[in-house]
Specification:
This protein is an alpha/beta fold. The chain has 12 helices and 8 strands. It has one domain: TIM Barrel. It is 39% helix and 14% strand. The chain has an 8-stranded parallel barrel, surrounded by 7 helices. Helix 7 runs parallel beside helix 9. It is found in: Cytoplasm.
């Protein structure tokens, strides 16, 4: 029996990850490991650890800028952080968020995506919303923009929702299942599912033809994503249920990041205590 704690590092292909690779990973049952990053140093750390997808999240508004929500983040902020994060990557696929109200119309969304991909070197853009965003997804997809559709808890709607709460319980589950289907049909290349019951995460994943990445969506999604500062124990305040601090058992930042990737790949994370019912 191998004693190598990071077999994924020996098995991975050194070439850059593509959308086709992510689709293959879903079809073959290989878990997709994702993390946020906001600069070149953390990007390089995650690349060394074998992270498949790096997200420049508008979560930077909270964990980097110190705001209470993601709402104040600007397009210029996202372009800057995307560009400097891209500078640290060699293998991982780079996805960047469209910030609050920068995609209010499909034309706004295309203009913002143009900046994030042209100036920010993003390879995919992500934005929040269910059925209402299907037309925008189609508009971008038909023009060559890879799109990740974000459903479930939508942090940009925190003031509308009244806080960060689990979504998709009761009758809302059927709406979310329908939203996922409509967004995929519109051309979404990936779905990010946040803070929903594990059973709903499993159902949406089983019925999706594109990779489904979960954050607080149970163990059965095609991949997992967390905020990098959370896995390193750097985020202040109360931690969400789905967060695991990988620095607790690691001696270095590199070991913590590699432990996270290995735990996602072999199914040890998320454990039952990280899921919602």
């Amino acid at each position: 029996m191998s004693t190598d704690p990071y077999p994924h590092l020996q098995q991975r292909d050194a070439r850059p990850v593509t959308l086709s690779d992510l689709a293959r990973m879903k079809s073959e049952g290989e878990k997709i490991a994702c993390l946020t990053a906001y600069d070149a140093s953390f990007a390089a750390l995650e690349d060394r650890a074998g992270v498949d997808v790096v997200l420049v999240g508008d979560s930077l508004g909270m964990v980097v800028q110190g705001h209470s929500s993601t709402v104040p983040v600007t397009v210029d902020d996202m372009v800057y952080h995307s560009r400097i994060t891209a500078a640290g990557l060699g293998r991982a696929f780079l996805m960047t968020d469209l910030p609050f109200l920068s995609y209010a119309t499909k034309h706004d969304a295309l203009a913002t995506a143009h900046r994030l991909m042209g100036e920010g070197a993003a390879q995919m853009v992500k934005f929040e919303g269910g059925e209402i965003q299907a037309d925008t997804v189609e508009h971008l997809s038909m023009r060559g923009v890879p799109v990740c559709a974000h459903i479930g808890l939508q942090p940009q709607l925190v003031h509308k929702l009244g806080g960060f709460r689990v979504q998709g319980r009761g009758d809302a589950a059927e709406t979310m299942i329908r939203d996922a289907k409509l967004l995929e049909e519109a051309g979404a290349d990936m779905i990010l599912l946040e803070c929903v019951p594990a059973a709903l995460g499993a159902e949406i994943t089983a019925n999706a033809g594109v990779p489904v990445i979960g954050i607080g969506a149970g163990p059965d999604t095609d991949g997992q994503i967390l905020v990098v500062y959370d896995i390193l124990g750097l985020s202040p305040g109360r931690k969400p249920r789905f967060v695991k601090n990988f620095m607790d058992d690691a001696g270095t930042l590199d070991a913590a990041a590699a432990d996270y990737v290995a735990a996602v790949k072999d199914g040890r994370y998320p454990a039952p205590e990280h899921a919602f019912s």
